[in-house]
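Annual report, structural modelling task.

Input specification for the flavin-adenine dinucleotide complex:
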Amino acid sequence: MKNDLIIKELESIFGKDRIKVDQNLSFYLTLRTQTKAQYYLEAESREDWVKVGQIKASKKIPIFIMGGGSNLAIITDYINGLVVRNLYQKKEVIAETEDYVDLLVSSGYVVARLVIETIKEGWGGLEYHQGLPGTVGGAIFMNSKWAKHHSYFGDQLLYAYLLETNGEIKKVDHDYFKFRYDHSVLQETGEILIEAVFRLKKEMPQVLQKKAQEALNYRSETQPKGIATSGCFFKNISEDIKLRLKLPTTSAGYLIEHAGLKNLRVGDFVVSSMHANFIINEGSGKAEDLIKLLKLIKDKVKEKFGIDLEEEVVVI
Ligand SMILES: Cc1cc2nc3c(=O)[nH]c(=O)nc-3n(C[C@H](O)[C@H](O)[C@H](O)COP(=O)(O)OP(=O)(O)OC[C@H]3O[C@@H](n4cnc5c(N)ncnc54)[C@H](O)[C@@H]3O)c2cc1C
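The model returned the following structure:
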């Protein structure tokens, strides 16, 4: 559905051929849900983000930001407004001592690549995120984690540059993000991460590689591979609830498994037999089937444990 005035304006800002209309997003989503964007842009630089900021400030059309699409469950066939996929790539050492480097990384940088490169350089702090899909922007937005060693992506963040809702860029420090489990302040403010600066400790690459391998081994032992999924679908429960209900773990996967829901299927969406918190799209799963499956899971877990599961993935 094309609005000629909007498309003309977007083309005048970003240049012809950069704005796609009715773009299929399925390929950019690891869960492979079928959905289209009314307007679609790939942001490749800080300058692109400044322009996106101007559109955001004008409030003429809604804007949605995508990183690697690995934590998204889009349950609508059509997204109105502009979807911006972040392909901004930049990495630069901006300070260095004998003990550490301060590394500026753009928000579109792919985490897997960043982890491999920092290990190779002997810069420690991100190694447990080996195997984490997605971009730096998504990982800061979610404060993504490797739960086994309580290692959170925001831990090494020193400061960052954000695009405010009025289109201005501002510098904020680590504390601004109010990081906690699966949470950063970006989820409250709607601000967009442009660049992040991490302080990384100098260590032997072999030591870092060993830790990264531990994370990779754990993933391959516990998570299904080569499938369409958005990772863990629901948040783990709090330590308080675990203790109150005398449960052996905080794992949402445990609750789903012990509610007897492994292999539960609606259409092409199925609960993984290996990790019950992973929902897999085995074909071209329809939004309505995913909605039904989520409701079944939540209802059964509530019935068995009295717990309301909360989505970890961003559901749109
Ligand atoms: C196989 C698999 C394994 C996974 N393992 C883990 C794991 O071990 N630990 C874990 O925590 N997660 C895990 N995940 C979930 C997911 O990979 C992470 O949450 C990841 O950090 C999301 O990054 P993304 O770039 O893909 O974000 P997206 O899915 O593209 O976006 C997620 C949210 O972040 C917002 N966003 C993205 N970029 C920006 C930005 N620059 N500024 C502001 N907002 C932004 C989006 O608008 C959206 O609301 C896994 C997923 C899969 C598929």
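The chain has a mean pLDDT of 95.
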